[in-house]
Amino acid sequence: MKFFKSKYTQTIVIVMAVSGLIFLALGGYLTPLYNLTLNPLISFQSWLSVRYLSLREYLTSPREVTELREQNALLESQVTQLQTQLIEMEEQLAEAEVCFALLDFGRTNPEYDYIAATVIGREISPFLQYILIDKGTDDGIQFGMPAVTQQGLVGRVDAVIANAARIKLITDSTSVVNVHLQSAETEAQLVGSLTGDVSLDMIPLDIKVDPGDVVLTSGLGGNYPPNIFIGQVLSVQQRDNALFQTASVQPIVDFSSINAVLVVVNFEAVDTSPLIPED
Amino acid sequence: MIAHLVCVLSLVVAYILQTTIFSQTPLLSGTADLILLFLAAWSLQENVENSWLWTVIAGVLISMVSAMPLYAPLFGYLGVVGISRLLQRRVWRVPILAMFIVTLLSTFFQQALYVIALQINGSPIAWGESLDMVILPSALLNLIFALPIYAVVNDIVGRMNPLEVEP
C-alpha cells in the first residue's frame, strides 16, 4: 500500500490517466462525456457573463440618463438599419439601370438566414481580438461564417465546437476585410490593429476620399457577403512617396460592449488559398 | 489527492472569470491574467508540489481554447511557474514581496513570449506599441490583483494543510 501512497506513484497515475483521457478525447470516444461536461460549464459561463455585463452597464450608466440612452440606442439602431437599407437600395437601383435584364436579384438582394448567439467571453490574450459565443456546430454554425449585429459587421467564425464558437473580430491585428467605399467608388482593405482600431489601406492615390464616407464589405475574396455596413471614414492620411493612401475608420459596432451577435448561416466562405501560389 | 482536486477546480473557476470578466475589463488594451496569478500564487506555496503537473495540463487546454499560436500559453505558464519556483527559495521570508516580483517578471516574460509567437506567425505587431498599450497596463493590473489572489490561494492551501499543534 505504501507504493500506491507515494507522491511519485500518484503523479505517474495522474499523468497516465490524463494522457489516456486526452487520447480518448482526440479519438472522439469521449464526445458524449465531453458534451455532458461542457454544457453546464458553458451555461454557467453564459449566465455569469450576461450578469456581469448587465451589472457593469448598470454601474457605469448614470440613473437619470439611462432611459434617454436606451431610446437613443434604439433610434441609432433604426437609423443605421435605414441607412444600410438606403445604401443597398441605391446600389440595386444603379445596377438595375445598367443591366436590368442580367441582374441576379439573388446576388444583389440576398436573404440571409441568421442564428442569434450570446457572447460568453473573450480571448484570454490581450493581443488578440476574439469573442466566444454560445452556439456551435449543433446549432449549424460552421467555420468561416460571418457574424454581424443589427448595426454592422463583427467578424467571422474562426473555430467551432459542438456548443460554442470563437469569432475573430475585424479589429484583430491579423484581420483583413475587402471593402468598398460608397462615395469614392473604389475598393480598399480594412485592417485591424493591436489596439482595436481599424483603418483602410490600399486606397489608390488618385481617389478622393473624404471623412464621413461610408465603408461597406465588397465581397471580394469570398470571405464576407457584399454590402454589409462597417463604418465611416474618420480621416485620410497621405504620405510622401507612398504608393497608396490610408484612412482611419470609425466602426459602427461598439466592439467593447457586444452582448450578442447574428451569425449568417447561409453564406459559404470561399477558400481561395489553393489559388494563391506558394513561395 | 485533495490538492489536485482543489487545483483543477480553481483553474476552471479562474478560466471562467478570466474570459467573462477580466478579459472584458481592459486598461488601455491590457488585461489582468487571473490564471497567471493563480499559478504564480499556487507555486509560491511551500506545501504545494503539483504545480508543474497542473501547469502543463492547464497550459495545453488553454492553448487549445485560445487563438494564440504555437502553444504560447503553455510555455508562458511554464515560465511563470519556473520563475515562481526559482524565487520561492530566494525570497521565502517575504512571500508577498515574492508574489509581486513573480507577477511582474512573469507578466513581462509571458507577454514578450506572446509578441514573439505572434510575430513568428505573421502578425504585424510592433514592440513599442505592445509595451505601451498591452504589456505595461497588463503588468499594472496584474500587480493590483496579485495581493488578493495570493491571499485567497494562501488561505486555500492553509486549509488543506493545517498546522499541527503539539500537545
* Low-confidence sequence ranges of chain A: 98-109
What pair of chains forms the biggest interface?
A-B, 36 and 46 residues
CATH third-level topology of the largest domain in chain A: Thrombin, subunit H
**Pairing-aware structural class of the strands and helices of chain A?**
alpha+beta
Q: Provide the helix percentage of chain A.
A: 25-40%
Q: What string, H for helix and E for strand, traces the elements of chain A in order? A: HHHHHEEEEEEEEEEEE
Largest sheet of chain B: none
Determine the number of helices of chain B (DSSP H or I, runs of at least 4 residues).
6
How much of the sequence lies in strands of chain B comes to under 5%
Shape verdict of chain B? globular
Secondary-structure class of chain B:
mainly alpha
Shape, per Cα inertia axes of chain A:
globular
Number of strands of chain A: 12
The tally of strands of chain B reads 0
Reading the helices and strands of chain B in chain order gives HHHHHH
CATH architecture assignment of the largest domain in chain A: Beta Barrel
- Oligomer class: heterodimer
| Rg value of chain A | 23 Å
Quote the average pLDDT of chain B. Answer: 88
CATH domain class of the largest domain in chain A: Mainly Beta
Helical region count of chain A?
A: 5
Please give a structural write-up.
The complex is a heterodimer of chains A (279) and B (167). Chain A is of the alpha+beta class. Chain A has helices at residues 2-5, 7-26, 31-60, 63-99, 105-108; strands spanning 114-122, 130-133, 146-148, 153-160, 165-169, 176-181, 186-191, 198-204, 214-217, 229-237, 244-251, 260-264. In chain A, the strands form two sheets. In chain A, strands 1-2-5-4-3-12 form a six-stranded antiparallel beta barrel. The longest helix of chain A is centred in the N-terminal third of the chain and has 37 residues, at 63-99. Chain B has 167 residues and is mainly α. Chain B has one domain (2-160). In chain B, 73% of the residues lie in helices and 0% in strands. Chain B contains six helices and no strands. Chain B is globular. At the A-B interface, helix 2, helix 3 and strand 1 of A face helix 1, helix 3, helix 5 and helix 6 of B.
